[in-house]
Structure formats: structure tokens, C-alpha cells
Amino acid sequence: MTQLTTTAFAGVIFPSVTEKLIVNISADEAPIFNTLLRMGRKKTVGSPTLEWWTVDADARATAVNNGAGYASGATDIVVDSAAAMRVGDVIVVPRTQELMLITVIVTNTLTVVRSVGTTDAAALVDNDPIVNLGPFQMEGETSPAARNTTNVKKTSYTQIFTRSLEISRTVEKTTMAIEDAKTQERRKKLIEITRDIEHAAIFGEPFEETSGGKPRRGTMGIRTFASVNVADGNGTVTEPELDDWLSQIFSKGSSHRVVFAGRTAADVIRRIKKPTMQGRPEDSVAGFKATRYQTPDGEFDLVRHKLMTGAADTEAIAIDLEGGAEGVAPEICVLTDSDIMLHENVQVPGQDGRVDKYLGELGFRWGNAETHGRLTNITASG
């Protein structure tokens, strides 16, 4: 991590300088906020209400939903959800490689023609995955039923972050051997407000509360937003269970994730997975140490997050920082002219000393929830 000289905190600190200071001091303290800043994922917005649309692409998979399974000659197959299916689609059962043609759909029951390909029909078991290969149009047939994607609106808010430092006149004028009190306090408070922002980035929940007469807003944290690909590790996690969770996450979005984990969760994942590269990934722009792992579905960098303690100590949060085809890349949204900056001499008239404060207003947009994920209750490897 780049070391900063004391002079960096001594004079007037403009917003652009403040951001450079944050980037230099926050790699380990606030890796999520730091990464987005370093990647240039910062946008100015004109309203404290943050709204964005995500496009949920058609689902491609479902599963058999019948405890007894089905014989090889069964033609009415109940599945978890037929929402992704249309008459005329051909589906495949990956385990057996059998292809089936859908001829009728009633709620979640598919009436099919078995073994339309070269692979013979085989018995199905409960929870057998089924993947939709798409429409296979009959010669001379009219257009197939429309398949519309769903636009989903997400809402969050910008949040006001502030930290004040107060120094008496006597302390301010006292000469210290290493650095003066003002410089020391400015550095400490900048680290504190950076941690505040990182806490919001992880644990925040969006709200707008007006009981005090004026709005008080909270921004959306990734732990709240990543509500789709959530799995319970049930204590002891095996490598196949970890791979199943990762496979679910990589089904949409880019082929790369950063997994931020509490200490316990990070230790378990390290014991389960063999890294492909240790230290800083070559393409990392964040400046913190990470370990890279390869899976059949994609690659991820594992980062032990200092602020994920308590209940979050046994959790891992996977973030898609790139977005991919179905996603919108996460970004920091700063209200107009509200970058984090140092305001000097904001003390009341007549006060014996000075008060400076860092102040800014920003929030987070996380893109598509289906490209992120959480694995909870990771306490041991199996």
C-alpha cells in the first residue's frame, strides 16, 4: 500500500485529492469501495433517489418435481417451473442426454415427445435438471410465442457521510516531533469515514425516514441486494457444495467474481480450494491481496474482509464487478457537488479551537442481483 506523507493532510484538500487519499489508505480497510473507485465506477447523479432497471433474461433451466421420478415411457413431466418453456421448445436432460419436444404445457406439467434425438429415453429422477435448448420450429409453422424479458426496477438512495475533527487552539499550536495534531486527526477521520462508507456498502439497507422533520436516507448494501443466489453452508461445506453455489452465480453475468469473506469463511474456502495464483492478481486494480481460484464455470478472487465480523464472519459475498451480458456493472453514485471533501473551520464563532469535517453524499447501485450471491454459515470444510 502506498505510504502518504504528512504534508498530504496538512493544507487545503480538494475533492480530487481526497479521492486519491482514500484510494491510497483504504485498500485493506474498504476494499469494495476502493475497488469501485480505482475502476472508475463513479457517477454523478442529480437526485438522492437512485433507480435503475435490470433485465432478467429468460431462464433456461428447471428440474423434475416428482419424488418417484418417471419411467422412460412417461410423457407428462411435472417440473419446478414451466415459466421458461414454450410449446415447440426442445429440452435436454443433461444427466441422460435425452432430448424431448414440448407439445403441451399446463401450469408446470410438460407433455413431451420423448427421445426426439438419437439418445434413447431413460428414467428420470426427482430434481433431475432440465435445460431448454430453445424453439425448434416446424416447417411452415407460424412464428413462435413471444419471449419477453422482464425489466425490474431497483431503488436505493444516496446517504450523507460525515466525520468531524475538533482541535483546541492550544493543541493546534503545539509543535510535535513527528506530525502536528491537525494532520494526525485528518488522517484518522478520513479512515473512519471510509470505513463508514464500506460498512454501508456491505450492510446498508435502503430507507428514507422523516420522523425528524427532514429526510434521513440509507443506501443499499450488497449483503441486502444479493438476495437471489443465497445458499446455506449448514456449517460444514464440501468442495462440491461450494462449486454448486459458484455455478449458480456464474450462470449469468461475467466469468469473474470477487468473493469477499469473513475470516472464518475465508479460511474454510482456502482449505477447500487449490489456488491458481497467490498474491495480487495481475489484472487487479484494487491494490489489496487476493488469491485467485479457477472453477469450471469461472474464476474468482478471494479477499478476507476485515469488516465482515460477527454474523458475517462465516459468510462469503460474491460480487460481479463487470456486469456481463445480463448485468449492469456496480457503481458509486455521488450527488452533484457532493464528493467526500474536507470542510475547514466550521466551528461556531468564538470557539477556542477549530473544527474541520469530512462531508459527502453518495450511494451504491449494484446492477443485477442474479449476478451476485451469498454463501452463509461456513464454519468448517468437509
Short description:
With 382 residues, the chain is of the alpha+beta class. Helices cover 19% and strands 33% of the residues.
Q: Strand fraction band?
A: 25-35%
Q: Which topology of the largest domain does CATH recognise?
A: phage-related protein like fold
Structural class: alpha+beta
Biggest beta sheet summary = 6 strands, antiparallel
Give the H and E element order: HHEEEEEEEEEEHHEEHEHEHEEEEEEE
Structure summary, number of beta strands? 21
Strand line-up in the sheet with most strands = 3-8-5-6-7-4
How far from one another are the termini?
A: 35 Å
The best one-word shape is: elongated
Structural notes for this entry:
With 382 residues, the chain is an alpha+beta fold. Strands 3-8-5-6-7-4 form a six-stranded antiparallel beta sheet, with no helix packed on it. 35% of the residues are buried. It is built from seven helices and 21 strands. It has helices at residues 15-25, 31-38, 169-173, 181-203, 222-225, 239-249, 263-272, and strands at residues 42-45, 49-56, 61-63, 76-78, 89-93, 98-106, 109-113, 129-135, 150-157, 159-168, 207-209, 216-218, 230-237, 256-261, 291-294, 299-304, 316-319, 331-335, 341-343, 353-365, 373-381. It has two domains: 1-57 and 150-382, phage-related protein like fold (Alpha-Beta Complex); 61-148, M1 Pyruvate Kinase, Domain 3 (Beta Barrel).
